[in-house]
Amino acid sequence: MTQTIVVLGGSYAGLQVAHRLVKNTRKTVKDLKVILVSKNSHFYWNLASVRAIIPGIVKDEEFSQPIEKGFAKYPSEAFEFIVGSAEASDLVAKTVTVSTAGGDRVLSYDHLVLATGTRTAGDDVVPWKASGTHEEIMDQIHKTAERVKTAKHIVVAGAGATGVEVAGEIRYEYKDKEVLLLSGDAHILGGDVTAGSAETELKKLGVTVQTGARVDRAVVLPDGKTEVTLQNGQTILTDLYLPTMGMAPNTEYLPSSVLKADKFVAIDEFYRVKDAANVWAAGDIVWTPRGGFVIADKQAAGVAKNIDLALHGKGPTPVKLLPMDVFVCAVGRGRGVGRMGSVKLFSYLVYMAKGKTLGMQMMPGILNGTNY
Length: 372
Hints:
By secondary structure, the chain is an alpha/beta fold. It has ten helices and 21 strands. It has two domains: 3-120 and 247-322, FAD/NAD(P)-binding domain, CATH 3.50.50.60; 134-244, 3-Layer(bba) Sandwich (FAD/NAD(P)-binding domain). This is FAD/NAD(P)-binding domain-containing protein. Belongs to the FAD-dependent oxidoreductase family. InterPro entries: FAD/NAD-bd_sf, FAD/NAD-binding_dom.
């Protein structure tokens, strides 16, 4: 009897789990079928979004390519790709309802992998996450790039890694634009040990950094400008407002019994979803210990391994992440800050590891499964 694995989410974690199971597990489990469900028909390398909003720097195909192309080598009996979004789930009956252009489909599974990630919190339309269809994401990128090109004054709200990278990319390219980075905390990057170095690099680029500046609201005025009001009452008038703060998990299709208070998925050390049989999770949807490409990569590898073990009648093994916390943040296209554990990295190393290409050279291998 066919063993069906349904993988929800076509980003970093979902693609890796699907490829590993079809390529490797199917060698010994011949009746295995993997169904990958993605709201987006294309794999979106969102790490590059901070540079994609700068006109003329990167081409669309460098950060977005069709998912189906990456799985075309697999036989239809082993793999199926569905463009759609998960709308409901019955974890007792082991079914997931998926909304597609042709109507709803109810998928039955033997194992289910949750990898639907996160989206930008709130109603702001920004391209930092794959929050829509391919067409919607590319439209966001192109419209934002056009607005970056014409704006004289830009406010970047939120001074986490994304905010720092956005501000740095804009000011690196445009020395004549005023770029203001707002941090709601007393320090950028949440007070990370690299915060001081990052602020120094930003100021070298000409970015103005304002700390203790938490946004209360932003209102678009009739003339197209945006009035940003801070919680301290200060108002800032800008040509372009780019919020980068806050992430919300894409878990609305799941029962509350498997979610934590913050709506992220509750898992054990094996990345099994708690209170659910044969359900696993990886990537930003678990936010453990936090979100990130390298973390998602390790989580996905561990989940694929544990599903393989389960299909062979063996118990799972704890999912191992990196032995130390690693953080890297590009600051413009020539510099960066980072650390391994508490040890700071030289700016040039961060530039080579991330800032030079934002990892776009790895996209084909992840999309096609040649990295696994």
